[in-house]
Design brief:
319 residues; alpha/beta; Elongation Factor Tu (Ef-tu), domain 3; Rossmann fold; Ubiquitin-like (UB roll); six-stranded antiparallel beta sheet; five-stranded parallel beta sheet; 7 helices; 16 strands; 18% helix; 31% strand; globular; binds FE2/S2 (inorganic) cluster
């Protein structure tokens, strides 16, 4: 793991909603944190060895702290459960510098923010930024119940009342996304973050929008496309060293590089964080990440080597 990290301390923890903890992190030496922009996330390197990505939700103009929120996942593999059950104020841990795969189009004529559950976190940060800039936005927040909706008061305090949808008040029906997209004027930019079914509904509703106007952030990897080919073996040419490696069908590019003794930045290994993004110099990538837009995929300039592979039998990377 060569990702750049630094030490932070848990400065405050707060119950933000049912099963959602807000965690404030500061440097132990009191110095400023690295700057960030709305939509950015950081990695927490947990003492139990796990690494988890969380979006920053505080005002991006703040310099002394990062605030993230962690939803207790019933199917937790140890990340959210550890934070809810073990993490304490005063504890030190290593965190990454912020990375932004979900940047805000600050000059949009209208920004429509659509959040589901804990997906509210990057969008709260965006709303704070838009409010500070005096830019127009609307905020739609869905949660299973009122008790599980975090940061509603914070969003309302920014001056634009949030449109809330609580599933349990609608017989369990989820927020209808298509009417929100249809009602927005041309030129609006949409940002959606939430559970997989919400993102799928959003992507279907936004399919007719021009490229670059619909933005999503996945916390977990997208399900592979039904027609995705089975992974195959290919040659990996490393431009910097001139070496060629064989990537077998059962290994990723990242695994192949690390096993061969090469250095590579990585974090999630799931195609959602962007840390392993690598330049393509020749060949065509078979993109399997949850970050790049269709346009970025077609441009074939970079790829996430933790999950993406090769169309054809050879790929040359800037490694
Ligand atoms: S390590 Fe996170 S996208 Fe590859």
């Amino acid at each position: 793991m060569t990702e750049q990290t630094f030490e932070a301390r848990v400065h405050r923890m707060e119950w933000a909603a049912e099963d959602i903890l807000a965690v404030e992190l500061r440097r132990p030496d009191g110095e400023d944190m690295p700057a960030f922009t709305a939509g950015a996330h950081i990695d927490l390197h947990l003492p139990n060895g796990l690494l988890r990505n969380y979006s920053l939700l505080n005002d991006s103009a703040e310099t002394r702290r990062y605030v993230v929120a962690v939803g207790l996942d019933a199917a937790s593999r140890g990340g959210s459960r550890h934070i809810h059950n073990e993490m304490r104020v005063g504890q030190r841990l290593r965190i990454s510098e912020p990375r932004n795969n979900f940047p805000l189009e600050e000059s949009a004529s209208l920004v429509v923010l659509i959040a589901g559950g804990i997906g509210v976190t990057p969008l709260v940060c965006m709303a704070r930024r838009l409010a500070a800039l005096g830019r127009p936005y609307e905020f739609h927040l869905a949660a299973r119940s009122k008790a599980r909706a975090a940061f509603v008061d914070d969003i309302n305090a920014l001056g634009h009342p949030v449109h809330v949808h609580f599933d349990d008040e609608h017989g369990g029906a989820p927020l209808a996304i298509a009417p929100i997209v249809a009602a927005a004027p041309a030129g609006a930019h949409f940002y959606c973050c939430g559970p997989g079914p919400m993102l799928a509904a959003f992507e279907a509703a936004a399919a007719g929008l021009p490229e670059g106007f619909a933005h999503v952030e996945y916390f977990q990897a997208k399900a592979p496309a039904a027609d995705a080919p089975a992974p195959g073996a290919f040659k990996l040419i490393l431009a910097k060293s001139g070496e060629t490696l064989d990537v077998p069908a059962n290994k990723t590019i990242l695994e192949t590089l690390l096993e061969a003794g090469f250095d590579a930045d990585y974090s999630c290994q799931d195609g959602v964080c962007g840390t392993c993004e690598t330049r393509i110099l020749a060949g065509v990538a078979d993109h399997r990440d949850s970050i790049l837009s269709n346009g970025e995929r077609a441009a074939n300039k970079t790829m996430m080597i933790c999950v993406s592979r090769c169309v054809g039998d050879s790929l040359t990377l800037d490694v």
